[in-house]
Amino acid sequence: xxxxRGSGRASAGAVRLxxxxxxxxxxxxxxxxxxxxxxxxxxxxxxxxxxxPDFPVEYAQPADLARLVARDAPHQGLVLxxxxxxxxxxxxxxxxxxxxxxxxxxxxxxxHNVGAIMRSAAxxxxxxxxxxxxxxxxxxxxxxxxxxxxLEVVPWVRVVNLARALEEMAEAGYWRIGLDGEGKAxxxxxxPAGPVALVLGAEGDGMRHNITQHCDAIARLPxxxxxxxxxxxxxxxxxxxxxxxxxQG
Length: 249
Prior knowledge:
The protein is an alpha/beta fold. It has two domains: about 15-85, no CATH class; about 90-245, Alpha/beta knot (3-Layer(aba) Sandwich). Helices cover about 30% and strands about 20% of the residues. It has ten helices and eleven strands. This is 23S rRNA (Guanosine(2251)-2'-O)-methyltransferase RlmB. Keywords: Methyltransferase, Transferase. Pfam families: SpoU_methylase, SpoU_sub_bind.
């Protein structure tokens, strides 16, 4: 078998995914162009549904598959090379159901966090994840594994200028709520009944000043004070739940 250990980039324009949930979701996604599946026979048997008869599969031992992915990555007998997903655009996702929130990430660069946030976005029916192209992780196997299949179902919009994207959201009628522990209002107090764009900053630094200036409200989670802060992916999950259960006026 050929191929080197890595974070999930197989070659230019391609992504290497691993793990049952990530691979299975990618195989079911009609928007994915699949290149090749390396797998154990047990890995293929674990998939929900059968592969097409002509699907390119190379059977291998688990140790061989381990050489294709990041060190100690739990590949579960499945490694898939496929093309990266096509770009998604902000105007198209804002044409959908206005009750579905947008999740805006300002310089959240850890692929585990972005993947976990994407999983919560799928669970709570968010319309899309929006990031700035230069300050967010690439599509990768690590991110897809953390997203547990959500990478294939939650649109990921990459923009050049995040502040300008927030302006476009306001023009489309979205109320932009930045989540910050120093917010005077709690998230529940700040939530409107209409469309919402939830804005979260990187751990430690939080939102940049320019991004804060483009929010209509800054809100905090009503925490007890027993801990100073939450991981950004945990905070996103709680905020998305609050959005999902808010009264609709």
